Amino acid sequence: MTESERSWNLSVLVDGAPADKVKELLDTMVDRAKVFTEKYEDKISSMSAADIKEMLDSLQLFQIEFNDVINYGMLRFSADTTNKESGQINGWSRQTMSKIGQILKPIDLNLGKLLSEKPELNQAPVLSGLKHYLERLHNESRYHLSEGEEKAIIQKDLNGIRLFSQLHSSWVSEKTFEVEYEGEQKTLTYNELSSLRMNPSREIRRMATETLYKSYSNDKLLHAFALRSICADHLAMSKLRGHPSPMTQSLLDQDVDEEAIDTLLSVIENTSDKFRTFLTLKAKILGVEKLEGNDVIAPPTENPVWRFSWDEARKIVVDAFASFDPEYGTVVENMFVNDRIDSANRKGKTSGAFCARHGKAKSSFVFTSYNETMTDLYTLAHELGHSVQGHVTYHTQAPLNWKTSSCLAEMGSIFGELLLTDKILSMSESKEEKIEILSSLLNNFYYT
């Protein structure tokens, strides 16, 4: 199967517009944001619940269009950081996102202030569909700074922590590695080499792990400087906003309280012995006295039974979701039919996997690198779980409520992994096949 057959079609995000027209679309979004803010900014302090509803309905429609155009540039760049045009569009997108964030900031500040002064507004029946969004805004408003400071922070982040993050991704994604693999010298991308850390052969896993870590070590100044700068920025902003803890901003962003995080950590600590038991059994199955770091996520055998072509993977995940609900199977099938999955391996493709929103279509795009392994199949099901959860969310919630915390989002992805497990367990015919499946599932829980 060719790379183009495993690449996504992002043109629907901008209605097929060429690069120069995308720039015009972005500029138009900035102008529309200015018109919106000028219309409502000075009226918010005296708004009724019905007035707020009318304003937020208008904001939702704008944000759907705006986010789709912004995502076009960012997703293109994630798929290939070496493509000059993609880099240019991504740069325009980042700048536009910063501009619009600054333009719309007075709306957040003034509405947050109004909700603090009149909390009863959030109980108004006309705003019931936006209650959660308004509660989040109210919680964040207690740490808002002045309008000038908030705008300066947005501009700072554009060329600060966001740029450091992009630099790190671009630097890693453009690397290639000369290694001896399968009896010959090969040039592998970062994602291809990273996938070998789960190879059945311990020697290959060790080679891949050592090669990757050596690369990180060679670039340690870059990685250390970026990480320290991001951490220092976070601590400085936490102090400036008067957060009671460095965790506060993360708790607000993730829409969760500290008690929930403490409970989660407590459960992990209290059940860690079960994972240690699994690792002990894994060492026994692998026939080694002690596991190395690269063994933790390895398959339980040097002769794995399972290997899945892209076409096989497609059928399996569609059937897995359809087994729970035919509608979910259709959602997943449409992700393939409509070219919404980028699974090809290429130089310049950033590492990792994710699911991104396409608001106008109430659908998603999935980003992954597929190498026909059990781990890759689980990653695919994981991200498609996000897309199914997104489908449900987009068709039942107001757009301003679409922002999902990691705690909630990972429920959809783990759900996808469990459906996949049921499916391939039903396909297995031997004890060894079942062990390979369950080991892969537990490995994924370790990561998630």
The CATH class of the largest domain: Mainly Alpha
**Main sheet: which strands, in order across?**
3-5-4
Mean pLDDT: 92
Count of beta strands:
5
Instruction: Please state the structural category.
Output: mainly alpha
How many structurally independent domains? 3
Individual helix count: 16
The CATH architecture term of the largest domain is: Up-down Bundle
The CATH superfamily of the largest domain is identified as Oligopeptidase f, N-terminal domain
- Helicity, as a percent range: 55-70%
The percentage of residues in β strands lies in: 5-15%
Task: Note down, in words, how this protein is organized.
With 448 residues, the protein is mostly helical. The chain has 16 helices and five strands. It has three domains: 7-144, Butyryl-CoA Dehydrogenase, subunit A, domain 3, CATH 1.20.140.70; 175-295, no CATH class; 310-447. It has a three-stranded mixed β-sheet with strand order 3-5-4, sandwiched between helices.
